[in-house]
């Protein structure tokens, strides 16, 4: 993960420098600029992005940023993303391994296929801008896992990894829509959409399905993680993070020896359920386990920082982002440069509690609706709460191959009837029931904020801070605000980003 800023038809280099400075934390190790004709591009990288030793961080590397291919150096790319099946296409395109390998591959795909390049990116998350100085080509992945924003002013165009890069230079700011590309005319074109109807359900027995799920997830992990820099794993004690951590623990021992222990990190507001279950899982895999226990005062202290970095005021997102921010910051102090996350399975396997309100026939539509919320809601936590601490995050369960396969799994296997209850993510749990402790596999789904305890602390607190009359008056001015908690967060957001078009970039979850 990294950060970039781009301007088009703008001759003021100081604006570009200010844009990239505002997101310095997304890549404090390498920085480079490219200026030619109508384009100015700036990119920052984390060390983990290109797996270079710190002593090799020199002007030589800075001069290679934004990245280019030696065969056609006129094209430059600003890029933020991860590509699961890089090796497959690198071999076909003749792209050798080494620094900036994905960037060089994207440039090669663009040169050879143009807009058809997206056919090769079904297992990639990305936001990028490619330019030769006179024209440019910008795009964002279908799910919107990688963030991208743009702004307009007169005939100038601004693009950046975060909203804060653009606010201040123009008030006309927008979220770059997922599954779209843009050219130098400013026109935005759709290249992919989520399906409206489910594929024909597979008629395969449960053992074959669970074996395939395990195989895809293991392959996704090994395609994305090589432990070239200090790597740890978030561990909430839920099924998602436990699956990822178990795979990571085995891979870590295989690489570093049978006594090697991967570092795991758990957070709780007091002795929360997450803390207790994470201990069970850490003991089970023999990890080097770290806990961070926080209280209300610590949560309130970091709320302004969280909302500034998150660029959102949605209550459910803010609640879950606070513990993520705190534990990521703690992991960074422990020397971690890459954190593994279990994000992704709730969308793929219907893990959210509200799915239980719908019939099997409605489930696919609701699943696609949920996935459609990722780009300006849930994926922000994954991206922002780690990168603001200069940590690269990898989520092996966010995989195009896994999503495509899971869409064909019969819905009754995802949300399994059990008497009067429904077991969410049943087929995912079934796939790992022989791998993990029973109490972890069949632990009911809780949002990160619930399991960690931050939801209980925050959801009712603001009744004391804001009167009914005050809330009613504010809601008349800002109808987007739904309750007092959201109003509290909204005020912090407005202090940083205003109450204009920036508000329209915020995604609000279905329920509070």
CATH topology of the largest domain: Rossmann fold
Low-confidence stretches: 448-452
**What overall geometry do the principal axes of the alpha carbons give?**
globular
Structural class: alpha+beta
CATH superfamily of the largest domain: HUPs
Strand order of the largest sheet: 2-3-1-8-7-9
Query: Percent helix among the residues?
Result: 25-40%
Task: Find the count of extended strands (DSSP E, 2+ residues).
Answer: 18
Keywords: ATP-binding, Ligase, Nucleotide-binding
GO biological process, one term: asparagine biosynthetic process
Protein name: Glutamine-dependent asparagine synthetase
Pathway: Amino-acid biosynthesis; L-asparagine biosynthesis; L-asparagine from L-aspartate (L-Gln route): step 1/1
Present the secondary structure layout:
Elements: E1 2-8, H1 13-21, E2 30-36, E3 39-45, H2 47-50, H3 59-62, E4 76-83, H4 86-93, H5 101-113, E5 124-131, E6 136-140, E7 149-153, E8 156-160, E9 173-175, E10 180-183, E11 188-190, H6 206-224, E12 231-234, H7 239-256, E13 263-269, H8 273-285, E14 288-294, H9 296-310, H10 315-333, E15 338-340, H11 345-349, H12 363-372, H13 378-387, E16 392-394, H14 400-407, H15 411-414, E17 415-418, E18 421-424, H16 426-431, H17 438-441, H18 448-452, H19 454-458, H20 468-477, H21 484-497
Parallel strand pairs: 12-13, 12-15, 13-14, 15-16
Antiparallel strand pairs: 1-3, 1-8, 2-3, 4-5, 5-6, 6-10, 7-8, 7-9, 10-11, 17-18
Helix pairs in contact: 4-5, 6-14, 9-10, 9-21, 10-13
């Amino acid at each position: 993960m990294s950060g970039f800023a781009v301007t088009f038809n703008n001759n003021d280099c100081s604006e570009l420098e200010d844009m990239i400075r505002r997101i310095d934390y997304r890549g404090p190790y390498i920085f480079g600029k490219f200026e030619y004709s109508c384009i100015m591009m700036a990119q920052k990288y984390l060390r983990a992005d290109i797996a270079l030793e710190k002593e090799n961080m020199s002007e030589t590397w800075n001069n290679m940023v934004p990245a280019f291919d030696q065969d056609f150096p006129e094209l430059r790319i600003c890029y933020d993303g991860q590509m699961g099946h890089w090796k497959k296409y690198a071999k076909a395109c003749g792209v050798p391994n080494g620094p900036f390998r994905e960037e060089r591959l994207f440039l090669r795909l663009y040169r050879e296929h143009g807009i058809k390049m997206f056919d090769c990116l079904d297992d990639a998350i990305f936001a990028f801008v490619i330019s030769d100085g006179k024209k440019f080509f910008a795009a964002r992945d279908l799910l919107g896992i990688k963030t991208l924003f743009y702004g307009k002013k007169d005939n100038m165009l601004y693009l950046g990894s975060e909203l804060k890069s653009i606010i201040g230079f123009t008030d006309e700011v927008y979220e770059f829509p997922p599954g779209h590309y843009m050219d130098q005319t400013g026109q935005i074109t759709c290249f992919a959409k989520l399906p409206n109807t489910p594929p024909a359900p597979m008629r395969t027995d449960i053992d074959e399905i669970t074996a395939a799920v395990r195989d895809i997830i293991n392959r996704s992990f090994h395609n994305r993680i090589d432990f070239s820099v200090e790597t740890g794993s978030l561990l909430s004690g839920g099924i998602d993070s436990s699956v990822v951590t178990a795979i990571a623990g085995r891979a870590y021992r295989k690489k570093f020896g049978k006594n090697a222990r991967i570092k795991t990190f758990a957070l709780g507001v007091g002795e929360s359920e997450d803390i207790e279950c994470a201990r069970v899982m850490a003991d089970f895999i023999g990890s080097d386990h770290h806990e961070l226990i926080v209280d209300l005062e610590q949560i309130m202290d970091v709320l302004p920082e969280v909302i500034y970095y998150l660029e959102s005021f949605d209550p459910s997102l803010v609640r879950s982002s606070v513990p993520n921010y705190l534990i990521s910051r703690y992991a960074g102090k422990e020397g971690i440069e890459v954190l593994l996350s279990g994000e992704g399975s709730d969308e793929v396997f219907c893990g959210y509690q509200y799915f239980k309100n719908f019939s099997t026939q409605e489930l696919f539509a609701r699943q696609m609706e949920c996935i459609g919320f990722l780009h300006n809601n849930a994926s922000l936590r994954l991206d922002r709460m780690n990168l603001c601490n200069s940590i690269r995050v990898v989520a092996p369960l966010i995989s195009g191959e896994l999503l495509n396969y899971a869409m064909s799994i019969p819905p009754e296997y995802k949300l399994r009837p059990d008497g009067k209850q429904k077991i969410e993510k049943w087929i995912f749990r079934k796939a790992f029931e022989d791998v993990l402790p029973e109490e972890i596999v069949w632990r009911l789904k809780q949002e990160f904020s619930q399991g960690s305890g931050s939801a209980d602390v925050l959801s009712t607190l603001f009744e004391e801070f804001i009167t009914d009359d005050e809330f009613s008056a504010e809601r008349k001015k800002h109808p987007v605000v739904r309750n007092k908690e959201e109003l509290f967060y909204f005020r912090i957001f407005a202090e940083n980003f205003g109450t204009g078009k920036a508000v329209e970039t915020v995604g609000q979850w279905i329920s509070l």
